[in-house]
């Protein structure tokens, strides 16, 4: 050994702990003649200036120390005891909590650990949470050039921020969801030759759109939601010869499936009068409208019920013609359900008429669309027995009008000026000293309703301002929405939705046990976000430069990034909803998510799973056509959009169309009307050409044009890399 160095003595046995040795040195004592090994360089993250001056290393643990020091570690440790990956962090944190002083952390250095700590607090599966954090901090991205971001992680910054700060409405991928997604994705790869999900279909492949077979479908046990329905005498209310026990099942199916989302009448008061044959809170027109809508739903379970649909349609039309001039809560609720029945039955050119009628009647009755002073004066005239019924009908019909405005986006649509002034259902009415109605929270008695409808009332009240600004105030002739709406307004509404989402009750949090209507609420929530942000995306503006959201600290917080985050959430919701809830085949209230997902994937076919989602959305409409005739047309329109945008060849599009129509349930000569929007970007400037029926009728023209221009080949297709880990980003 060189004489310049002092000889080192062996480590005493009493102090031979792993922590007493410097990292990188060997635990085996060396002979006096050996040269001491140099300390190995350790791959760590960049240190801040303070750490450089003190010449200390930086680790993930040091970054977390300031935040762990302020936490009740005993309580956290018990909650995380089962997590293997969490134990080393907790043990180290407990030691630091007792023996280490709280270090000073530079503000820039603190941002990322604070975000990850919030991420840990809001995540139920701790093993998954730690694996996500470790992968995002430590693992380099393969194939990434220095200074560039890969395609799949371009929006990771904003998505991570939203998941950490607003986990109620932007939850991370949970274990049950991940299992469902990976199972479907692996099944899709096995069904594709050579595992190439971007390859064209061959003539020998099975039909991806199977025939509707209600007898083999997975359906829930149809028990009555209320025992009072056992006493139903349907003959008192209708002349349609349907058995009372079957009618009770139809009413029960509607109340359990769609009423928590629509709520146009008080279900308890309605059921009491329905079985007792009273007409205070029930009427023949309302019963006929429920049966018209409910029989369409039930035909997805039992196709024999379909024979009653035209009979209830005719009866409801006749009753509406004779009662439409009489303003009443029952007529208002029945008109909403009649409009929905027309929409599902492929007659939606009448729907706009019913939207206008509901808006006019609600304004005349002082329920919505009038100044608050007028509404309060009207509310004082309501008897205590009518207060709950009034709240349900006012908010239920108001919500429906806003939903239709967001869904149709057509010029000439009727919009209420103001939301209802009366309390949201689930609140009780009383009068304050000033005489104005106030509200106090009470629990909904209907177990199948939950808290979904009151929450939706608040959601649609926020979206009401969006529909007024975006669609009612749009100039004519139509221009791009971004030409008359400021990004500041869109960002304000986006922020308002996110902040309000943090106030959701525990029953509305997404989980494995969530009822179907909770998932539909989250679907509508993200559809609302997409509707707000779409006009400001690069694709909608026809620009290559993204805009900047100013209220987010993330540097990549653009409308495109925020739009992509909600698209990813919506993809997961669509798959989980359809796989976990059989009602996805006989309720159409969730199908707007399919339209938005389709528009998103056709706008970005670089997504490795775009073809899977395209087939999945068309398959979902294939399942829905067992209940609703309009699903036939919208399946055609989606294939037309795909062909028009050059994502598939004309030959493959014809093959898919042929397979989709093999199992159609309606005759090709049937006049199915569907005037709502399919191409959402085109709808901003030309709603007539963007409608479902317009795109459906133009399939052959588009296919011929593609064949003559480029021989039917698809120049826009790029080879898709198969990657199981792609699902981890959804």
TrEMBL record:
Q: List the InterPro entries.
A: Notoamide_regulator
**Per the record, where are the segments of Low complexity compositional bias?**
14-26
Q: Give the highest taxon in the source lineage.
A: Eukaryota
Q: Where is this region: Disordered?
A: 1-41, 709-730
The UniProt regions of compositional bias labelled Acidic residues, in chain numbering, are 718-730
Q: What is this protein called?
A: Transcription factor domain-containing protein
Source species: Fusarium venenatum
The root-end lineage is: Eukaryota, Fungi, Dikarya, Ascomycota, Pezizomycotina
């Amino acid at each position: 050994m060189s004489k310049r160095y002092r000889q080192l003595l062996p480590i005493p046995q009493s102090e031979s702990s792993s922590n007493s040795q410097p990292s990188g040195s060997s635990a085996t004592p060396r002979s006096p003649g050996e040269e001491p090994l140099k300390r190995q360089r350790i791959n760590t993250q960049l240190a801040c200036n303070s750490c450089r001056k003190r010449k200390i290393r930086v680790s993930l643990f040091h970054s977390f120390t300031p935040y762990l020091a302020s936490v009740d570690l005993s309580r956290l440790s018990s909650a995380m005891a089962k997590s293997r990956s969490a134990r080393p962090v907790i043990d180290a944190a407990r030691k630091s909590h007792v023996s280490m002083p709280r270090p000073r952390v530079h503000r820039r250095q603190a941002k990322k650990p604070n975000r990850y700590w919030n991420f840990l607090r809001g995540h139920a599966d701790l093993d998954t949470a730690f694996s996500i954090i470790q992968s995002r901090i430590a693992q380099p991205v393969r194939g990434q050039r220095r200074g560039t971001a890969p395609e799949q992680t371009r929006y990771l910054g904003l998505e991570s921020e939203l998941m950490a700060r607003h986990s109620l409405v932007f939850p991370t991928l949970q274990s049950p969801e991940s299992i469902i997604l990976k199972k479907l994705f692996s099944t899709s790869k096995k069904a594709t030759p050579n595992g190439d999900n971007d390859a064209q279909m061959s003539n020998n492949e099975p039909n991806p759109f199977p025939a509707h077979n209600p007898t083999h479908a997975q359906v829930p046990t149809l028990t009555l939601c209320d025992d009072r329905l056992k006493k139903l005498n349907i003959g008192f209310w209708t002349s349609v010869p349907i058995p009372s026990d079957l009618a009770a099942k139809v009413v029960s199916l509607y109340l359990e499936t769609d009423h928590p989302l629509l709520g146009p009448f008080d279900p308890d008061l309605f059921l009491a009068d329905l079985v007792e044959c009273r007409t205070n809170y029930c009427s023949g027109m309302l019963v006929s409208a429920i049966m018209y809508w409910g029989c369409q739903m039930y035909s997805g379970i039992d196709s024999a019920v379909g024979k009653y649909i035209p009979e209830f349609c005719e009866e409801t039309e006749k009753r509406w013609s004779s009662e439409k001039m009489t303003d009443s809560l029952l007529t208002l609720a029945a008109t909403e359900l009649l409009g929905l029945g027309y929409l599902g039955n492929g007659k939606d050119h009448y729907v706009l008429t019913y939207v206008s009628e509901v808006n006019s009647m609600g304004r005349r009755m002082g329920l919505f669309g009038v100044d608050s002073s007028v509404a309060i004066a009207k509310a004082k005239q309501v008897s205590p027995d009518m207060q709950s019924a009034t709240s349900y009908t006012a908010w239920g019909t108001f919500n429906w009008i806003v939903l239709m405005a967001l869904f149709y986006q057509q010029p000439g649509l009727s919009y209420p000026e103001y939301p209802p002034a009366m309390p949201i259902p689930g609140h009780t009415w009383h009068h304050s000293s000033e005489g104005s109605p106030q509200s106090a929270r009470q629990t909904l008695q209907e177990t199948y309703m939950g808290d979904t409808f009151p929450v939706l009332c608040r959601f649609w009240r926020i979206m009401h301002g969006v529909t007024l600004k975006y669609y009612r105030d749009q100039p004519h002739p139509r221009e791009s929405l971004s030409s008359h709406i400021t990004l500041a307004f869109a960002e304000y509404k986006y922020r308002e939705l996110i902040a309000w989402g943090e106030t959701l009750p525990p029953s509305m949090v997404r989980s494995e046990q969530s009822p179907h209507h909770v998932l539909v609420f989250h679907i509508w929530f993200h559809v609302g976000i997409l509707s707000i942000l779409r006009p400001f995306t690069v694709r909608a503006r026809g620009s290559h430069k993204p805009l900047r959201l100013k209220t987010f600290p993330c540097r990549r917080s653009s409308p495109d990034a925020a739009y992509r985050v909600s698209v990813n959430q919506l993809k997961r919701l669509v798959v989980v909803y359809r796989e976990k809830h059989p009602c996805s085949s006989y309720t159409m209230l969730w199908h707007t998510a399919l339209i938005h997902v389709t528009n998103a994937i056709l706008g970005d076919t670089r997504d490795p799973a775009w073809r899977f989602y395209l087939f999945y959305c068309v398959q979902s409409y294939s399942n829905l056509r067992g209940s609703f005739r309009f699903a036939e047309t919208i399946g055609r329109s989606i294939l037309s959009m795909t062909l028009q945008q050059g994502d598939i060849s004309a030959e493959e599009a014809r093959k898919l169309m042929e397979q989709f129509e093999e199992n159609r349930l309606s005759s090709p000569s049937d006049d199915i009307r569907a005037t709502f929007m399919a191409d959402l970007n085109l709808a901003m400037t030309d709603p007539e050409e963007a409608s479902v029926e317009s795109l459906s009728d133009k399939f052959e023209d588009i296919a011929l044009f593609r064949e003559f221009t480029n021989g039917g080949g698809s120049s826009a297709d790029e080879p898709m890399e198969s990657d199981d880990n792609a699902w981890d980003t959804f």
